[in-house]
Write a structure and sequence with these properties.
Elements lengths: L1 H18 L2 H4 L6 E3 L2 E6 L5 E8 L9 E8 L2 H8 L6 E3 L5 E5 H6 L3 H8 L9 E5 L3 H6 L8 H9 L13 H9 L6 E8 L3 E11 L2 E7 H10 L8 E5 L10 E16 L7 E16 L7 H29 L7 H7 L6 H9 L2 E12 L5
Parallel strand pairs: 1-5, 2-6, 6-7, 7-8, 13-14
Antiparallel strand pairs: 2-3, 3-4, 8-9, 9-10, 11-12, 12-13
Length: about 375
């Protein structure tokens, strides 16, 4: 009886192993479709249109990549659904970019999608996030001549470079950290399709919690990155209006940053908060359009004073925008939290920021004008 039982078990094991293909459980790498970019467009309050791209490893194919779209409720549901459209088993293990349409970012927010992807062990934490103007599907299906496939193109576009250093280059980890932080709020690059079939980071999208509320122009964003103590910043173009308000004597200066220093002084009082923002800018003039001779010291000092006034106005204007929306992308609240650790709540800080008295001083030093004599 004992031997009969053993033989039956052995036969069952052979039958079960023969009915299961090893490729169903563990597909080889050649059978995997590596998702490079995943995007989300607004449909309604319950559904989202998910678009993905798959790079084509073969050099013989006509198209450098494949695009698929599906209307679902959750991102992983889209992966399962679109797996039926291709011969590959789709996987997010090589996901590098997440795109959200502006409509989706404003109406639904990013948290639901990011939270579900973040808990997937296959999804890395250094995936770039960006908001796009229009729909993600149009971005992914657009024609970009003389450009690599859309996967490499977007990865290269969102990789940190000095020329686009006004962009925060946000990853999943960065966004979740900022969104759950007790002081600051997240921001992401804002991408637009421009002429001649190209994509461009034009602005920075700013968020209250996980919902997009506004954008910052690149010149405003450069000042914010300086306040975040980023060391390398791109050139900064500043228009200096004429005293009489006419365009005839307007001056234009392009300043190349050499280095910046920033600090903020606060009174620590959440009931009557006061902030003093100090920014020191040291740089070279690489372009100048105006009537002054920058070879003379008096003219350089005059330009410095005008630049200080313009930069101060931009800092105040940008911080006023933060107060209006009740957000803190810079992290001003950290100085207040140090002095109010026991009773600290982010909601209380945001309320304090919105009524805070804010002043600023920008000190500018021109170390070179490029004048040839």
């Amino acid at each position: 009886m004992k031997w009969t039982y053993i033989i039956c078990c052995f036969l069952l094991l052979i039958i079960n192993s023969g009915c299961t293909s090893p490729n169903l459980e563990h597909p080889v790498i050649e059978d995997l479709g590596m998702i490079g970019v995943m995007g989300f467009d607004y449909v309604d309050a319950k559904n989202v249109k998910v678009s993905i791209t798959l790079p084509q490893p073969s050099q013989d194919v006509e198209e450098p990549g494949q695009q698929f779209s599906s209307v679902v409720k959750m991102p992983h549901e889209a992966i399962m659904d679109m797996s039926t459209l291709t011969e590959k088993t789709l996987t997010p293990a090589q996901l590098r970019v997440l795109l959200f349409s502006e409509e989706y970012a404003r109406k639904e927010g990013l948290w639901k999608i990011l939270e579900n992807l973040y808990r997937d062990p296959q999804v890395g934490t250094n995936i770039f996030i960006a908001v796009v103007k229009g729909t993600v599907e149009d971005i992914l299906t657009g024609e970009y001549k003389d450009k690599p496939d859309i996967n490499d193109y977007l990865i290269d576009l969102l990789t940190p470079r000095t020329i686009t250093a006004f962009s925060p280059f946000t990853t999943i980890h960065d966004f979740i950290y900022r969104n759950t932080d007790e002081v600051s709020d997240p921001s992401t690059p804002y991408i637009e399709s421009v002429e001649e079939g190209s994509l461009k980071i034009t602005k920075v999208a700013i968020f209250k919690n996980d919902h997009m509320v506004d954008t910052m122009e690149s010149e405003e964003a450069k000042l914010i990155e300086a306040m975040k103590k980023r060391k390398e910043l791109p050139d900064f173009s500043i228009s200096i209006p004429a005293p009489d308000g006419t365009l005839q004597d307007e001056e234009m200066v392009t300043l190349k940053f050499v280095n910046t220093r920033y600090h903020v002084k606060v009174n620590g009082d959440l009931e009557k908060p006061k902030l003093f923002i100090y920014l020191y800018v040291r740089g070279s003039i690489v372009d100048y359009e105006g009537k002054k001779d920058l070879a003379t010291q008096d003219n350089r000092i005059e330009i410095e004073k005008k630049l200080e006034k313009q930069l101060e106005d931009k800092v105040i204007k940008t911080v006023r925008k933060f107060q209006k929306h009740g957000i803190d992308p810079v992290g001003f609240g950290e100085s207040f939290r140090i002095q109010n650790a026991r009773e600290w709540k982010k909601e209380k800080w945001i309320a304090a920021l919105q009524r805070a008295d804010i002043t600023t001083h920008v000190e500018t030093r021109i170390i070179s004008t490029g004048t040839i004599r």
